[in-house]
């Protein structure tokens, strides 16, 4: 009996010490489509392995609103969130509030795509771990291209013509709410990614070049914006001026658009059991600006970082390493079509089966156009905000493209006055 009591006492002691050690980690995960559910499965698996608990903090869908929320929390030194899901373009902006993961991430970092590793480093230090890679893609309705006997558009002029033809035809068939092309036109970071694709595809550069020179005021960029402004109200609903990713996916997935620009996550949802367009969708590179233009998809993606103000930095770092591991990236790719950042997973048969486009569009991902986040450092959000506001004015016909770009050039020069960083 005494022995039993002693062993019960021992067991209770172990339990007590486990729970004293076990911690609660909070993580911000975005919730586009299935993102929340897939994040939850990942953190629950880690919690089970470690005995810790994890709380998910939901964040706004708009990247720009999310950044503002993070900046507010971090500026106050708040320890409410231990692990932040951060956009590839925010590392420089948030670095002062993040833990240096160089030592802990060292063993794994070389397994990741170099472009994504670059977005995770600031002044040579690893401030985040790559989680998934994004690139802008063209989604099309294969059934409608077949019906109207049209090929997948190669240039924006082709897309404009084909979108128009399908839209006219579908509307004649009584589908008054059918549109040719939907994308992200709200004045937020997503518009920067869309407009950069138009500009780069016409050969108009990437707003600011690698040396920090402002290049956006040029005839190719003007031409690109003119083309995009021409879509609004013709092949694209005026409402697009307030669309983020999810609003455009809503229209496309309801079967009400021929083409959509979006990130890879929309694939798993379009192919979902309850999708009205399941089996009818294809993905291609976004069109070229013209015969001498190029296919251009903006490089996007998300990283995981640990807050400098976390009270449980070791456990938080362990969670980051678990979520960004090969096993977890594979699960996310198969279930949610989140492109891995680990190079080896690009030859994984299960991932290729679930997402045929990943293999077919290797060029889109390897040649994705980077936003000028590294070169403009802490100023990136200001640069992007000026850019998307200027583009939004053109799209809503409040400014002519050349005039808007001239003003933008002047505003960017003002931001750069004391150098970028
Ligand atoms: C996606 C991309 C991100 C981009 C954002 C714009 O979340 O991963 O890089 O900034 O969309 O809306």
From TrEMBL:
InterPro entries recorded: SBP
GO cellular component: ATP-binding cassette (ABC) transporter complex, substrate-binding subunit-containing
Record flagged with keyword Transport: yes
Species this protein is from: Microvirga lupini
PANTHER family: MALTOSE-BINDING PERIPLASMIC PROTEIN, MALTOSE_MALTODEXTRIN-BINDING PERIPLASMIC PROTEIN
Membrane-spanning segments: none
Keyword Transport: yes
Signal peptide: 1-22
Domain of life of the organism encoding this protein: Bacteria
Protein name: Trehalose/maltose transport system substrate-binding protein
């Amino acid at each position: 009996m005494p022995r039993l009591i002693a062993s019960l006492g021992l067991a209770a002691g172990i339990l007590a010490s486990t729970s004293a050690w076990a911690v609660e980690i909070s993580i911000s995960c975005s919730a586009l489509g299935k993102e929340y559910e897939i994040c939850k499965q990942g953190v629950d698996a880690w919690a089970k392995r470690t005995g810790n608990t994890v709380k998910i903090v939901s964040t706004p869908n708009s990247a720009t609103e999310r950044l503002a929320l993070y900046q507010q929390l971090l500026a106050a030194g708040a320890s409410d969130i231990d692990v932040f899901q951060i956009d590839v373009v925010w590392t420089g902006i948030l670095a002062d509030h993040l833990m240096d993961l160089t030592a802990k991430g060292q063993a794994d970092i070389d397994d990741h795509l170099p472009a994504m590793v670059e977005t995770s480093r600031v002044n040579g230090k690893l401030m985040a771990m790559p989680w998934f890679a994004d690139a802008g893609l063209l989604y099309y309705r294969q059934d409608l291209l077949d019906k109207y006997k049209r090929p997948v558009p190669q240039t924006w002029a082709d897309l404009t013509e084909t979108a128009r033809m399908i839209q006219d035809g579908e509307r004649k068939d009584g589908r008054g709410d059918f549109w040719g092309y939907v994308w992200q036109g709200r004045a937020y970071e997503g518009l920067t990614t869309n407009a950069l694709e138009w500009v780069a595809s016409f050969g108009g550069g990437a707003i600011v070049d690698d040396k920090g020179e402002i290049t956006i005021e040029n005839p190719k960029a003007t031409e690109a914006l003119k083309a995009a402004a021409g879509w609004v109200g013709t092949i694209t609903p005026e409402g697009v001026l307030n669309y983020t990713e999810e609003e455009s996916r809503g229209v496309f997935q309801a079967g009400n658009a021929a083409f959509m620009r979006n990130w890879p996550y929309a694939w798993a949802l379009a192919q979902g059991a309850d999708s009205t367009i399941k089996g009818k969708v294809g993905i291609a590179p976004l069109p070229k600006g013209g015969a001498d233009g190029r296919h251009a998809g903006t490089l996007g993606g998300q990283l995981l970082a640990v807050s400098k103000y976390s009270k449980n930095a070791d456990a938080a770092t362990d969670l980051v390493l678990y979520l960004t591991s090969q096993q977890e990236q594979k699960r996310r790719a198969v279930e949610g079509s989140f492109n891995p950042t680990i190079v080896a997973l690009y030859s994984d048969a299960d991932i290729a089966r679930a997402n045929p486009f990943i293999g077919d569009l290797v060029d889109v991902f390897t040649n994705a156009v980077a936003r000028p986040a590294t070169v403009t450092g802490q100023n990136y959000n200001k640069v992007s905000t000026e850019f998307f506001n200027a583009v939004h004015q053109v799209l809503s016909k409040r400014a002519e493209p050349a005039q808007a770009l001239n003003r933008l050039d002047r505003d960017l020069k003002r931001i750069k006055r004391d150098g970028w960083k």
